[in-house]
Design goal:
The structure holds 2 protein chains of 2 kinds. Chain A is an all-alpha fold. Helices cover 75% and strands 3% of the residues of chain A. Chain A has a two-stranded antiparallel sheet with strand order 1-2. In chain B, strands 1-2 form a two-stranded antiparallel sheet. Classes of the chains: A mainly alpha, B mainly alpha.
């Protein structure tokens, strides 16, 4: 039993990071109908930036974090929106899908080619010292990740529900044409969503860097986890992406421990397929109109 | 009808080139050309699914794996190549139906996710079902087809064997696209709701476009295994599926000549840039993005421009816009 609780906490800790990437993914889909196939690389690039600022340039931690978030929001937020999305948005879903696949390859192989094909170690942010709570042993890192993610997601939720901009975002998500008629600058809101997403993935990168090593190709599996989380939980709901992320984290941790680590990636997929068959809008999602 | 005539002569030229080129190519170049033909078959399948019917598939490599592993495994037990090919094609077609059935009821992005997930599952199964697939070591010495005393063992003979299959595939795709089916596929791509209103059974046609594309992938896969001589799960990853997607996009989505050009570029370009594989992938990724931004009709779109230009140089009459 102690084992089980311990593994569940470890799963929630990794799942919280997936949830951050998944929430960004869902936000992009909601306001701009972008299925971002480069979401994994949107985590990897800031992770490398963090290595640059924190490990190589030896910035203090908070300064490195800020610098990483700024680089990410400029490049992956404003940059991608202005250069790619603005032009492709008018042409439907598919061209943007293909362009983001291209973007993911570009980021991945540029990092491999121009930086390093090797895995870069990253110092732990939180202590890995085990803490004993009765029969359960957890690490400060796990608790730290969960709290950090909770604060970020909580702040985002407040932004979306309590501020004028956030409510405008919701309006755009619900009906782009109508929001535009009501005087909301849709283009600017899409930019803001991309910036928010880039900030989320940068923060996720800072948490994931010490857990995974920083390597050019970890985005593949991270991106997948974000997809799974978003679909399982509900593609059009932030709470859905949160639930999905946690579920994916817990299921993969438990199944790797109890069943087989060979099929570690397969169990989340099994849930995914079950959800698609039984409730295609996701566990916590809302039915979308046919488009 | 000018479009059909125009579509036909480059194909004839390609066929003539395909017949004559092997006589002058060395062994390695012959291999690259054989591989290109296999990829042409696969890309034609994906073009049918994605280019014409607008259904995104990110598991083309998984469908391909059914063909490859069917001929490899059955070949070990002395089953003739063609029988293995049929089994592989049927498997791919069947899985296409199974996968398409739930996924096609929902929208684009779900199909992308489901197919993406399916490719990963197939890869994991290939790697872990060691008793059947040989695990990560794969299966070596996959036999090439033989008809009684006559065998296609030599590289050149097997090249012509692949060329024959490619011709069959091209012809069948041409036939499908010019039948009622092809028109229905295009109607769905252009506007699903309108297609349904005028009586196109959405689900059936989408399902068929998906499964037929998968069957072509199975055919390509069956030819791929004996061409290389060995297969392992690494040949059927998600990356490979994305590579096929790129072929179709680079060539020109929903254009008949598209996959031929796309497969040629994607197979030959890395050979030209050999030694700098990372750089190749970067160029490749950049060209996909630029293509989407500035040339969404692919390389065939360029060809159109050249054609229109040369035509307007000879006669001032307006050339009709091509029905895609």
């Amino acid at each position: 039993m102690g084992d089980f609780v311990q593994l569940t906490i470890a799963g929630v800790s990794i799942g919280a990071i997936y949830a951050m990437a998944a929430i960004g993914f869902v936000l992009l889909w909601q306001t701009s109908n972008t299925i971002n196939f480069a979401q994994g690389e949107f985590v990897v690039l800031p992770a490398f930036a963090m290595v640059l600022f924190f490990v190589i340039l030896r910035f203090p931690f908070v300064a490195a974090m800020l610098a990483t978030v700024i680089v990410s929001t400029l490049l992956l937020g404003v940059g991608v929106k202005e250069l790619l999305v603005t032009r492709l948005l008018k042409m439907g879903v598919l061209p943007l899908v293909i362009a983001t696949i291209g973007l993911s390859l570009l980021i991945r192989y540029s990092l491999q080619q121009f930086w390093t094909p090797l895995a870069l170690p990253f110092p732990a942010i939180f202590s890995r010292e085990p803490i004993r709570l009765g029969t359960v042993i957890v690490s400060l890192e796990e608790i730290g990740n969960i709290l950090f993610a909770a604060v970020v997601i909580g702040a985002l939720q407040l932004f979306i529900t309590r501020t004028k901009l956030g409510r405008a975002m919701q309006a755009v998500a619900q009906n782009r044409a109508l929001a535009s008629v009501l005087g909301i600058n849709v283009g600017r809101l899409v930019t803001i969503t991309f910036v928010l997403n880039a900030a989320l993935t940068a923060l996720a990168a800072i948490l994931i860097a010490p857990v995974y090593l920083v390597k050019y190709d970890i985005g593949v599996s991270l991106g997948l986890k974000a997809f799974y989380a978003a679909i399982i939980g509900g593609f059009n709901q932030i709470r859905g992406a949160l639930l999905g992320g946690l579920l994916v984290g817990v299921v993969e941790t438990l199944s790797a421990a109890y069943i087989s680590s060979h099929f570690r990636d397969a169990f989340a997929l099994v849930i995914l397929i079950a959800v698609l068959l039984l409730k295609p809008e996701g566990i916590w999602g809302v039915k979308e109109e046919w488009a | 009808m000018g479009v059909v005539a125009r579509g036909r002569w480059p194909l004839m030229a390609a066929l003539a080139l395909g017949l004559l080129l092997p006589l002058v190519l060395d062994q390695y170049k012959l291999y690259v050309l054989s591989l290109t033909l296999v990829y042409v078959i696969l890309a034609i399948g994906l073009n049918l699914t994605l280019g014409y019917a607008g259904q995104i598939s990110l598991c083309h490599a998984a469908f391909m794996a059914f063909g490859s592993y069917a001929v490899a495994i059955l070949g070990q037990h002395g089953v003739p190549f063609e029988a293995g090919l049929v089994v592989g094609v049927v498997l791919a077609f069947g899985w296409g139906l199974v996968l398409g059935f739930p996924a096609l009821q929902v929208k684009h992005h779900y199909l992308a996710m489901v197919t993406l997930g399916f490719n990963i599952i197939v890869f994991l199964v290939l790697r872990n079902w060691e008793s059947l697939t040989g695990g990560s070591f794969g299966i070596s010495s996959v036999a090439r087809p033989a008809w009684g005393p006559f065998s296609f063992k030599s590289d050149r003979a097997f090249y012509y064997y692949i060329l024959a299959w490619a011709a069959i595939v091209v012809a069948s795709a041409y036939w499908i696209l010019h039948s009622r089916w092809g028109r229905a596929f295009r109607a769905i791509r252009e506007n699903e709701m309108r297609a349904e209103v005028v009586g196109v059974s959405l689900r059936n046609y989408k399902l068929m476009a998906f499964a037929i594309g998968a069957a072509y992938a199975g055919t390509g896969g069956a030819l791929f295994a004996p061409l290389l001589g060995y297969i392992d799960p690494g040949a059927f990853t998600l990356d490979r599926s994305i590579q096929f997607l790129m072929m179709v996009v680079l060539g020109g989505l929903g254009r008949f000549e598209g996959p031929l050009i796309g497969a040629l570029v994607v197979t030959v370009l890395p050979e030209v840039l050999r030694g700098s594989e990372g750089l190749y992938l970067i160029i490749y990724a950049l060209s996909v993005i630029l293509m989407m931004l500035f040339m969404p009709k692919g390389l065939v779109g360029l060809w159109d421009l050249v054609w229109r230009f040369s035509k307007s140089a000879t006669s001032p009459s307006t050339s009709s816009a091509s029905p895609r």
